[in-house]
Structures are given as structure tokens and as C-alpha cells.
Amino acid sequence: MPLNIPLRDHACLTVHGADQPGLVAAVTALVTRNKGNIVTLDQYSSDPEGGAFFQRVVFHRPGLAAAIPDIQADLAKTLKPYVMEWRLTDQSVPKRMAILASTSDHCLLELLWRHRRGELPVSIPMVISNHTNTAEDVRSFGIPFMHVHSQGPDKSEAEAKILGLLRGNVDFVVLARYMQIISGDFLDKIGVPVINIHHSFLPAFIGAAPYRKAQERGVKLIGATSHYVTKDLDEGPIIEQDVARVDHSMTAADLQAHGAYVERAVLSRAVQWHAEDRVIRHGNHTIVFG
How many CA atoms lie within 13 A of 246 on its CB side? Predict the structure, then answer.
């Protein structure tokens, strides 16, 4: 039985903007006014005097799908004086997540396995790769596999093909060790969040063979970072990070194996939190409600 059962008639509302008196009362009154019952409510203020306010509310409302337009209209009217950004989602509708991958399969297969077990509240319309070595594995999960060749400094043709497959068909994209640099033009045109995973050696061990370089330096910790992709390479808002302790007896291959384990866990958590609307972007950092 799936572990992450869709929450029928449950809505998730996220609100953020300048902190000011009356926000919590306004949101909770709105939920009550629209026949909703609050299930969870999390909030954070960076400073009660001139800071930023963030809130995530999950509420149950019978007949939610039909009521959403009226609730949205009420939200727009109620929150307009506060100048807040908000988002309302139906938790029974899984987000459509496309995966881009290359030759490494550990993050890709982890996401596919967790999805099949019902641990990720997403649908996966397709996996796109610039290599074909994972095609059979992907198709064994019943998910379409698309090969888009990408090689050389000019990625415009490959990106155009990928955009043709993705645009209008996905709610967010995950780079599961997709070893291609995403252009700013692609990010502008895709119009949905893109999540990446990389080892946490950056920028100390950039380029090829980072685990070998780390082993030669005698590192004591390895780790991984998952973040939203922006035009600035590997500098987007961080969603999740983790580390593992290592020692002098481990080879570069040992470090890489430990690193792959951490990468899989970190990316899976980041994807789940994003899919559950637990992440609010604020400038170049994030607020993540557990």
C-alpha cells in the first residue's frame, strides 16, 4: 500500500511577505469563513519589527476542488492590504515531476523507487537523459524514457528538444546527476522550478574526479547539497544538505560510495519537501517547514 496517500479535500496554503500585525488572524479567519478545518499550521518570522513572515497552513475542506476558485478569490481580497505572496494547492493532486539524468543512476533510481513505493507525492511523466544506459531500468518502472543527445559547448539544440518535451507537461524538474550546465535561457523558458543535487565539495574540489582530490587532501567529512537552479551555477537557494564522516583508511572509491548514499537521501528529501509545498523561497535562501 502506498505510504504517501493523497490527502483528499486537503489544501495547502503558503503565505509570505513583510511581517505585520493581524496576519495570522486574517488567514485563520479566512479558512474558517470558507468552511475549512486547520490540520497543521507552521509559521516563522525573521523579526517581528520589520522582518519577513512565512506561513504554511494545511486545512481540510469538504468538496475542496469545487470550492478552490472561491477560496482563491477570498485570499486575493483578504491578503491584498498586507501585500503578501501566497499559493494555494490541492494536496490530492500530485505534482508532475520530470527527471533529467546522465550516466550515474543512483539518484535517478532512488527517486523512481521511492515513487513506486508511494513515498513521493508526484507523478513522473518522463525521464530525459543524454545517455541511454539507464533506459531499460527506467522503463521497468513503467515510465517513459527519452534520449536527447547533448555534446559540445553549444547546448541550444538539445535544450530546445528538452523544452519541447517538458513545457506545459511538468510542474517541476529534477536534475538527478544530469551532467550538463543548464542555460539561463532554458530556465526562463521552462517556467517551473528546477532542483539539482551535487556533492558538497564545491567549490573546493571543482572539475573532474572530486572524490579523488578529496581523498588526497584527507577530508574528514563528505556531503551533498540540493538546491534550486538559478542562472548562477550551483549558487541557487539551498533546500537540504547532509554529511557523512569519513577517515584516512577510505579510498576514493569508498568516498564516492558514501557520497552517493548521501546524495540519494538529500535529493529525495528535497523533492518530497518541494512536492508537499514545505519550501518557501525568499531571495537566495529558503524556509523549509518540517
Answer: 27
Per-residue cell: 271: 523533492
Sign of CA dihedral 179, 181, 187, 189: negative
Please name the helix (run of DSSP H) or strand (run of DSSP E) that holds residue 90, with its range, or none.
Answer: strand 85-90
DSSP per-residue codes, 194-216 = EEEEEETTTTTT-SS-HHHHHHH
How far is Cα 167 from Cα 189, in angstroms, rounded to an integer?
Answer: 8
Please name the residue that has the C-alpha cell 571543482.
206
Contact assessment for residue 95 and residue 121, using Cβ atoms and an 8 Å cutoff: yes
Angle CA(136)–CA(266)–CA(193) in degrees, nearest 5? 80
Contact at 8 Å (CB) between 16 and 280?
Answer: yes
Catalogue the active-site residues: 234
d(CA 204, CA 199): 11
- The β-bridge relationship of strands 279-282 and 285-288 is antiparallel
Comparing 36-50, 173-187, 200-214, 217-231, the range with the smallest average pLDDT is 200-214
User: Strand pairing partners for 199?
Assistant: 224
CB atoms within 10 A of CB 100: 26
pTM listed for this prediction? 0.94
What are the two backbone dihedrals, phi and then psi, of residue 244, each rounded to the nearest 5 degrees?
-135, 140
